[in-house]
Design a protein that fits this description.
Length: 366
């Protein structure tokens, strides 16, 4: 991918289609706060239902003008040459919001101060690796981040490592299959993304990291996973939520096969993703015969280690959420039964090779 930022901000009027990518849509807004002309960000039907006010509000404080109807896409942005630094508190645990503000802060005349709830820190690491003026003071529940703006930027090359969120489906596929072992090479195992491995290992999974190395400030490793016949329930610590927020769909699937009760709390952020994932996952578990209790955004999953399906299952109306589609495929492959899963095109935006990979592992898909 070759990106010419200067060419982008010179054009008088432009429309950028983010497709299904909330990360792209939110972070690009931070980069465009000094655009000379109007730029409009649009997205697909699913992305256009998500909350963008959480990003446009702090970015407007820099002096740019961002506007949208109903707090969602499309978002129009008019940049400013006279951007001022801000003080910003991010208390949702949203790495996207935090990162958008950090990128905007690089354009402001002065020092922006951010107090952010613990979340993924890929942006901080890449900015530090590039030698940009960022200072981070880490506390127990928050990070204090200072970003100084008005510096020259240089282009760079970056080879993107494997993604733990995409790997999660194959980790769970292996974990729930009999006599299986899988090695996933060169995965980014950033500490802020290891929630799924920490949670599953507490549930008696067998997942280890091998051949660790540092690349551009990130930790890269091979992930080795073996099937497990002795999974147990978990009382999941809330401090692991943000580091596993995209993986709870498959974590719930493991909990459904674990011995005992698994408890998860404060998962309201799941419903602010591409689909209301907490609602969808609860309905999914009930569909396959798993007892689930819910109190607001807390749930209990009553696991059944002997769970084996032999019925017919139809999965549709999930707002074309790619992760719901892939989780349903893993459930079909590990739990039995006959499944018809709609909207396979949903994976095109994030993991177009998913079905080909599981076919190579022996899946039969019609």
């Amino acid at each position: 991918m070759d990106l010419d930022y200067k060419d982008l901000i010179r054009k008088k009027k432009i429309i950028l289609n983010a497709g299904n990518s909330g990360t792209f849509a939110r972070l690009i807004l931070g980069l465009l706060v000094d655009s000379k002309n109007q730029i409009t960000i649009i997205g697909d039907k699913s992305l256009s239902t998500r909350d963008f006010l959480r990003v446009t509000e702090p970015l407007n404080k820099f002096g740019a003008v961002l506007s949208s109807k109903n707090k969602s896409l499309p978002v129009k942005i008019f940049g400013s040459k006279f951007l001022r630094p801000i003080k910003y508190i991010e208390n949702l645990g949203s790495a996207q919001c935090k990162s958008a503000v950090m990128l905007a802060a690089l354009k402001a005349n002065g020092k922006t101060i951010i107090k952010a709830k613990k979340s993924r820190n890929h942006t901080e690491l890449i900015l530090k690796n590039l030698g940009l003026p960022i200072k981070i003071i880490s506390k127990k529940n928050f990070d204090f981040i200072e970003v100084s703006g008005r510096h020259n930027f240089k282009g760079f090359e970056y080879r993107i490592p494997g993604d733990i969120s995409s790997s999660a489906f194959f980790i769970v596929l292996t974990l729930l299959s009999k006599k299986s072992k899988l090695i996933i090479k060169n995965v980014n195992v950033n500490k802020s993304r290891l929630g799924i491995i920490k949670i599953l290992n507490r549930m008696n999974a067998k997942i280890i990291l091998k051949n660790k190395k540092i690349y551009k400030g990130e930790i890269i490793s091979d992930v080795v996973v073996k099937s497990s016949n002795h999974l147990k329930g978990i009382n999941c610590p809330k401090n692991l939520n943000s580091s596993a927020i995209d993986e709870f769909l498959v974590i719930f699937l493991v909990a459904s096969k674990a011995k005992g009760i698994s408890k998860f709390k404060n998962l309201g952020e799941m419903n602010k993703k591409e689909s209301p994932r907490l609602d969808i996952s609860i309905n999914f578990l009930k569909k396959i015969g798993i007892k689930v209790e819910r109190k607001k955004n807390d749930i209990k999953i009553y696991g059944n280690p002997k769970l084996k399906l032999d019925g017919n299952y139809i999965i549709k109306k999930f707002k074309k959420d790619h992760r719901v589609f892939m989780m349903s495929c893993i459930a079909a492959l590990t739990l039995g039964g006959k499944w018809k899963i709609y909207d396979k095109d949903s994976i095109n935006s994030s993991f177009p090779n998913f079905l080909n990979l599981i076919k190579k592992l022996g899946a039969v898909i019609k």
